[in-house]
Amino acid sequence: MVTIDVNMDLGEGMNIEQQVMPFISSCNVACGGHYGDYNSIRSTLLLAQKYDVHIGAHPSFEDKKNFGRVHLEWHELRFRQSVSRQIQLFQDVAAELGMVMHHIKMHGALYHATAHHPEFVNWTIQWIKDEYPTIPLYVPAGSLLEQEMNNNGLTTYQEAFADRRYHDSGQLVSRHDSNAVIQDILKLVNQLSIMVYEKKVTSVEEHAIPIHATTYCVHGDNLNIVHQFDQVIAALKLNGIQIG
């Protein structure tokens, strides 16, 4: 049996935490940028504590209207101040509960900006060095950010998306495309199993592209999958994969 890390973005107002927390190994908790406040963070962390799930901060562009999915033209100081403030809120709540932040994962448009835009990559590297040098960052597998984190001796988890389609370039298919999100259990389990065992994924252009991941994300807003997550777990076990 192969054991993998499966992470999910939680505390985002979807009210799915109780349903999925028993099955996942890591969670990324919204901390005020695109969603979240003291109460939502605390309730999510309490469930994570109950089920022994790793906790991570999930900062974003400060844009609740667009749920953090629109790129904002920030300068470096704004980036550092905003992201650090969001993470501090997360850490304050965690400390009250005797919990420690395991990792950081950016959200939405900020996730993509910090992974692929050279300016944001450089800001992220320096910020991590200054503020959180021992904390792992969840980053897209094969991204510029992964390369630069490795070059600077910083710790990453390389992330792949179990329920998203990929292009040949390794970029995710836009959510504006109806084919972007995998909502069928068997298709998701098949894609994830190939990622785990063969270190590749089939693109929408029907080519096999390499992907080397150490954590796998399932989206909390993919409700068809979320509501049948126990079936996902059972199907993965039939393929020799467990979450832990």
Shape: globular
Helix content: 25-40%
Average pLDDT across residues? 97
Give the helices and strands as they follow along the chain.
Answer: EEHEHEHEHHEHEHEEEHHE
How many domains would you count in the coordinates? 1
Low-confidence stretches: none
Summed up, the helix count is 9
Could you name the CATH homologous superfamily? Answer: Glycoside hydrolase/deacetylase
* Largest beta-sheet details: 7 strands, parallel
Q: Pairing-aware structural class of the strands and helices?
A: alpha/beta
N-to-C CA distance: 11 Å
CATH architecture: Alpha-Beta Barrel
Describe this entry's structure for a reader.
The structure is a single chain. 40% of the residues lie in helices and 17% in strands. By secondary structure, the protein is of the alpha/beta class. It is globular and about 45 Å long.
Q: What are the salient characteristics of this protein?
A:
two-stranded parallel ribbon; alpha/beta; 244 residues; 11 strands; TIM Barrel
What secondary-structure arrangement, pairings included, does this model have?
Blueprint lengths: L1 E3 L1 E5 L6 H4 L5 E5 L7 H13 L3 E5 L17 H21 L6 E2 L3 H9 L1 H14 L5 E4 L3 H8 L4 E6 L23 H14 L1 E3 L5 E3 L4 E3 L5 H4 L2 H10 L2 E3 L1
Parallel strand pairs: 1-11, 2-3, 2-10, 3-4, 4-5, 6-7, 7-10
Antiparallel strand pairs: 8-9
Helix pairs in contact: 2-3, 3-5, 4-5, 5-6, 7-9
